[in-house]
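Need tokens for this chain, all 457 residues.
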Amino acid sequence: MLSNSHIVNSYLGQTPSSAALAERAAGCFPSAITHDSRHTTPYGIYVERAAGSRKWDADDNVYVDYFGGHGALLLGHRHPEVEAAVAEAMAAGSHFGSSHRFEVAWAEAVQRLMPAAERIRFTASGTEATLMAMRLARAFTGRNRIARFRTHFHGWHDHMAFGVSGHFDGTPSPGVLPEVAAQVVLLDPNDIDGVAQALEADGDIAAVILEPTGGGGGMMPLAPDFLPRLREITAEHGALLILDEVVTGFRVHPGGAQGLYGITPDLSSLAKILAGGLPGGAVAGRADILEHLDFQATAAKGVEKIHHPGTFNANPLSAAAGTAALGIVATTDACEKAAAFGAELRLRLNEMLQRLGIAWAVYGQQSSFFIFMNAGGQAIDPTDFDPLALPFTELKAKPGEQLNKLRLGLLLGGVDISGSGGGVISAVHDAADLNQTVEAFEQAVTMLAAEETLPRL
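Here are the structure tokens for all 457 residues:
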């Protein structure tokens, strides 16, 4: 039980100010939180400030940060060039209700990195971007249905609110209309034959959308040949290919996953790094598809335009931050530095697990890592682990109480990972961060093994 846990009691003793803030928050928010992935028992940390790769909580405890602004902070917290750009924009005005030079520069920065972005429409979030991408696909093709992959996350709107962590049979999650769920075709990741069969059998599929490195930002990775084959099959059947690059865009490569793998999508959804750590998203892609947002083009063709307002579309502060961040990505080795740190971190954590005799593994791609907690008791070697050898259900399965305690144990060691049991890496994580992270993991796993039964090598 949590109440009898040395890990939990130590955490309570270290974070009294966060506890007091959590108590106040409970009177305001469901579960006292504003984002599901921040759910932690008994409560999560409350952060007061951040800089570079680190952040400080209300009790002045300092943490190596692998939450990374939910993946938005490839350049770390408070990058000076990004801060200066936002200050310049703020001095001009936070919201003009008019077009402005910041949005033009932002769009051009995207186009320099992503040649497939012939036209761009900015939104206020990644969820809005995938929603608009779907609407464009239906309008362009005249078809009604969208194909998605189980475990792939594309925001929280109705078409995407099931089949991610549950409802894998396609039934709607609470509040979603059955009629909406019925317009979604759920497919198994890495089953390219299943995709071909679905497109052959259903001529009403407008588009196939996916996370290009796999579900959960790569937690359930895709086989190397899957994406190229998917591009071929969608083109053969007249269905659009939408790459959801909200997570991967400008992170796995300056040009996103499409740049890394050499794939040209019809549409892309973007957010996170796009806006340099501020709110912002976009849908980008073929000019003939985005013409459905164009007053003149739709009038000339005699078709009804897609209506798209949005108070904070291309907000000048987000535009300035995004332009600065993308400029840094374009002209430095930020993506490569973060990826190199990720490779070294995964290697050292797996060596540590093998030394401790714990049958877990740490895996991932480029600047991400995920912890396989081996709920099914598989015989594995942490230093030679192949996530593609396991079904997505096993990769995604994590004993909830063990993961919660692991996260608390890591916080005791000054390391903050995501609620899903992994993390994202910035270009400013350094050798001291790496050493502290490995030490914190060893301490946390050792503490957890004293309280819970963990799978052994």
